[in-house]
């Protein structure tokens, strides 16, 4: 299934982490033309106030310092690497950050829109895949509970395996909850704590 | 008396090749402005042109740009027509700290600090045309085009607007540049009876298509201009003579038509007709090149210099009372504020202007600030008739 791509970036908040040189000037000018709000910084402005709200981060992959590169402050945002040196040690760092796209230096106005479009859309895809993966993990983990509930219904209520399963399915549908949650109810367990954490994380992504 | 500033410029405009009709009009428009400026002793600059004919080939543009920028050391070149030629030479201009004055409408999604874009951006051509088609004719469209970026991107914008309006794209076909074997697609269009046909076919393909569509519609008893009009963002006065009996009744979105009623345009058209009577009526491409040279001369005069950086700063927010009306270079993206217009072609090789934007519209090359093309937009487009 194909989704509409995001191609308008008006109002997106960009954090640009690089030295204020001519590359930085070209990048900033072009981002402003594209309607983004730009914040310049040498390191991630995390810390006491918590992570600043940004929608996309540009970082200089040639920058020597790894200080401030704490993955937890930069998770869940599309990253775009500015690359001058193609030395593997530098590129390994780009891989490590999971940058969703890159811009080669010297920075030209051409190529910035492409890098931004690829990063934002690639990131959105990754977020959707992560949510799907979390849902699958939950279902997988829940299978043990479902089996247990079916067994309980078979032994406790004298149902056949098929009837027990069908009863769980129908009850879950009527209550509009996942089958796994219904199974937890049936064997007297509370709601699944892992699931709530998962769905919160899903909501943290910025809608298109 | 202050001596006049010598302004050497390059002209990188094809005089031969597959789109020579349009490209010759561009060259002629530039010549007209150069001669006009040089003949006027009161003008602060005097222009010396160096012309190279790239012959419509990409390699010709690259070689030509090298000669103009490296051998002649020029800082200002008026030229290019296709987007591919512009993108091909741009790195040379960036390296040489030189400015390309680009005299054509294009599909947008570019903002170089080494190009002044004199032609219309997409929010000034395809977006107003899309609104007009969806409002006046319906939401069932057929798209046919030459197979390259200009067609793909314009069709993308139109397709999204049609989908958002709950309409339907009945067909979308692309052909190699120059293809004239278009009988099958014309038959299919007649069978589908769309509300309108949007064409991005260029050159010979475009002429063949419009002629065949008109003939097939007549044979089927369809009043094609009224019930199934063909619309484009490029059909101009230079091309209408090639359409013969099928010249009338096509819609075109453009910032210039030779029929604009203004003092500046009457003067321009008079000069054009006296100088180039064999080239058809004055067209958007000719006017755009004429405006490019005038803006360049004014920017150099304002800067008191012909240097790249000085002229670039001087051209920001600079205005010129052009044949199409006042044109202002946007200080931010170096595209121009202009008034979109929609014309309907006449048998005599000119256009009736049906719709014109009441004021100059800010250029929006990335369509960042432009609402969806389906957006009512009734407030910003004024129907003339």
UniProtKB/TrEMBL annotation, chain A:
Organism of origin: Thetidibacter halocola
Protein name: ANTAR domain-containing protein
Lineage: Bacteria, Pseudomonadati, Pseudomonadota, Alphaproteobacteria, Rhodobacterales
Disordered, as annotated region: 188-208
Compositional bias of kind Polar residues: 197-208
GO molecular function annotations of the record: RNA binding
Pfam families: AmiR_N, ANTAR
Domain ANTAR intervals: 126-187
PROSITE patterns associated with the record: ANTAR (PS50921)
From TrEMBL, chain B:
Recorded coiled-coil stretches: none
GO MF entries: amide binding
Originating organism: Thetidibacter halocola
CDD domains per the UniProt record, alphabetical: PBP1_AmiC
Matches recorded under InterPro entries: AmiC_PBP1 (IPR039570), Peripla_BP_I (IPR028082)
Highest taxon of source: Bacteria
Pfam families in alphabetical order: Peripla_BP_5
Name of the protein in question: Transporter substrate-binding domain-containing protein
Upper taxonomic lineage: Bacteria, Pseudomonadati, Pseudomonadota, Alphaproteobacteria, Rhodobacterales
